[in-house]
Amino acid sequence: MSSLNWVRGINATLGWVAPHAVASKMRREFMTPRDLPPRSWELPLLGSAERITLRFGLSALRWGSGPAVLLMHGWEGRPTQFAALIEALIRAGYAVVALDGPAHGRSPGQEASVVLFARAVLEAAGELPPLKAVIGHSMGGASVLLATQLGLRSEAVVTIGTPSRILTVLRQFARFMALPPLARAHFVRLVEQHAGMPAAHLDVTRYQLDMRGLVIHAADDTMVPASEAERIHENWFDSRLLLLESGGHHRVLGDPRVVSAVMELLEEQAGARGTALRQDAFFQAR
């Protein structure tokens, strides 16, 4: 029997007689990320990065110079997973800053949540020039969307493989770990207490998304269903949906169509700014 099946078996049994204890253990498991090393293809980009430390101790990698683009990886992810996109942004003349999320990489902390990730995005944005775009993958995308509700300002936001609501993620984890119903309810409440926000509030249907957006997802993503991207898009009036037939949850980050779509969005933003400036000059001259 595998260790996972062993844990599931214990949860399914003890969860009936000691639901709070089992839920507490699973809450710690859920909020404690593993430290996964970079893949070999990430190392060249890692070697060319400048390591910076933000005001409250968060670590980040920086490349290039020019207008700023901020990147937020997903759960147990790394900045260099965005390698293909980072390289394209550098070539196009952007400064790229990619965070190590709380309790990830060299950033401090032992536990993390979408709320802590969102606060990290806000902290980074407060120390950077006005952002041309913020791009988030998976839970990083969910944290970016939440950060926009907490005051984040960016000309555009891109989500990749992102869930539309956190309560669904919690319930899926609880079911996967074979928690009985009462233990599941305790688990959700404990996560909410530690995160400091009700899970029901972390839902795009409650958000006011007033910036331009690009929602990217692969149809064969087995971790976050593609229907989540459709739900985000439906609730984001100024967004574009790019649904790819393949790419899974992680490989999609290196898909050339993803890179092209992001760069096209940024080019459109630059064109719109140029038009607005010319119109302002015209009316001021009259």
From TrEMBL:
Pfam families: Abhydrolase_6
Organism: Pseudomonas indica
Source domain of life: Bacteria
Domain AB hydrolase-1, residue spans: 69-261
GO cellular component, one term: membrane
InterPro entries on file: AB_hydrolase_1, AB_hydrolase_fold, AB_hydrolase_sf
SUPFAM superfamilies in UniProt: alpha/beta-Hydrolases
Protein name: Esterase/lipase
